[in-house]
Every structure is written in structure tokens, then in C-alpha cells.
Amino acid sequence: MKQVAVLHGGISAEREVSLNSGAQCIGALRAAGYAVTPIDVGADLGALIAALRAAKPDVVFNTLHGRFGEDGCIQGVLDWMGLPYTGSGLRASAVAADKVAAKAVFQAAGLPVAEHRLVTPAELEAADPLPRPYVVKPVNEGSSVGVHILRGGDNRRGEIARAWRFGPVVLAEDFIPGRELTVAVMGDRALTVTEIETHLAFYDYEAKYAAGGSRHVLPAAVHPAAAAEAMRVAVAAHAALGCRGVSRSDFRYDDTAGEPGRLVLLEVNTQPGMTATSLVPEQAAHCGISFPDLCAWMVEQACHGA
């Protein structure tokens, strides 16, 4: 029986999400016939290495989210230890987690991205970096942590800048009106297109994880050409970054002037959520792939190195 160590928890702002993902993946992996050792990851790297050595896993199933979990850090540790792990390798993980670096890769591959600018918090406090409406976000956080939309008449810019705690720079990005779409990729296959509807101001942390925060429509009721393009771009983005295993590409779809509309790639998640409200398990189920089968596929695809 294959031994699988599941890493969950971590020390990022997304710890609670990771604990939830890990708990559900542990159950699914056991249902799929694997021997599972859960490892709650904390700040002590030596303790994590000791736990992995004690577990002697054939594969590490990574459900860590956010910094140190999907930005190449844990991937480097596992590469050093020679342990196969699920998801993308160090390089793809690090580039995807840095939104500015990822945008450069997408632009080089000819994929559609929003106009953007990097500013310091002081520059943001002093003046609008882009015409309103625009979005400000951290360069390297996930789950919409630290994301704000600044529209005409909104006087929060100075408050947001003074309270900024996500590093020395702020990513300012054109706000794209329209709808929120996402596409999961397994290997070289796009699964389907989901539209995410929310009654909240935008698809923020609460919308992602709170019960009733959002509604997922799949397949999305969009123009067939737009759906096909979203699936094509998701696979192309996965390949451009050098991802492996499962990824999820998030889009804004501007159909305000009619369809087929304009599609803009926001980011690629190399460690997409695996909770009850998560998008990748939903898309897999839509394609006839059960949650245990999805987790088993990820285990069998696991490897280490770039």
C-alpha cells in the first residue's frame, strides 16, 4: 500500500483553508486505498523534516496554501529530501505565486492580461496609480487576501495604503467589469468553465470560503467561443508556467458590450483549494471524476525536481 503524507495547515494567512483542504483530502485518499499520515505544518522547519522522515512517505500530498506552501518554499524542501510531491515544482510555483512575474510569462506567451503598475504604499497614498476603477492587491498572497477595488468617489485609498502589510510594493491593476470565470486543468486537459456569482462586492475571501458566499454555475452560461477560449488559455497558461498536476486559472470576462466579449487572465493557482466549496473538485465531478479519484490521480502524477 502506497504511503502518503498530507501536509496541511502552514503559517500563511490561509492556514484555516489549508486545514480544511487537508482534512477532506485525507478522507478521500483513505477512501482511495492509500495509507495516510497527516502532518500539521507549523513554523518549525526542523520539526516538519523530522515528521517527514518518520513517516517515510512514497508521496507527499501538499495541501498548503499561500506563502511557504505554494510559492516554491516547501517544494524546495521536498526536492532537497528527494520526496515526490503533488502539484507544480519549485520554479513554476515560485513564478505563479509572484503575480508580476506570472504576468510577464503570460504576456510573453501572448495571453491576455490586465494593465498593471507596481507602486509603493507611499505612492498609493499620494495618488491614484491608474484611472478608476482599479484593483490593488498583494504581489504574493492568495485567496483574495488584501484585495481592494477602488471606484470613483471611494475615499479609502489613504487608509488602505497606511494599513498595507503585504510587503514593500502594491500591485495596481485595471478593474475589468463583467463576470468571474475559472477553469481547472488536469495535466494537459481543461475540465470545464465555471462562473462564480456572489452577492458580495467581489469574489473575496468571504465569498470563496463562507457558506453561501458564492454560487458556482458550471458549465458557465457564456458564449461558446468565450468558453473555448477560456479553456485554451488555461491550458496555455499552465504550460507557459511549467505547471504539473492540477492548476486553476481565474479570469474576468467582460461581456458588458455583448458577447463573445473580452477575456482577461488574472492568475494561475498552482495549489487550488480542495474544500467542500472548492472549484476544482466541482469541475472534476462534473467531468465524472470523483473526489477520491481526483486525489488518487494527483498522487500518481507526483514527482520532484523542477
Account of the 3D structure:
By secondary structure, this protein is an alpha+beta fold. The protein has three domains: 3-87, Rossmann fold, CATH 3.40.50.20; 96-113 and 177-301, D-amino Acid Aminotransferase, Chain A, domain 1; 116-174, 2-Layer Sandwich (Dna Ligase, domain 1), CATH 3.30.1490. Helix content is 36%, strand content 23%. The chain contains eleven helices and twelve strands. Strands 10-9-8-11-12 form a five-stranded antiparallel beta sheet. The longest helix has 18 residues, at 224-241. The two termini are 27 Å apart. The relative contact order is 0.16. The mean pLDDT is 93.
Order of helices and strands: EHEHEHHHEHEEHEEEHEHEEHH
Number of domains: 3
Given as residue ranges, the uncertain stretches (5+ residues, pLDDT < 50) are none
So what's the CATH class of the largest domain? Alpha Beta
Shape: globular
Strand count, sense and closure of the main sheet? 5 strands, antiparallel
Q: CATH superfamily name of the largest domain?
A: ATP-grasp fold, B domain
Helix % is: 25-40%
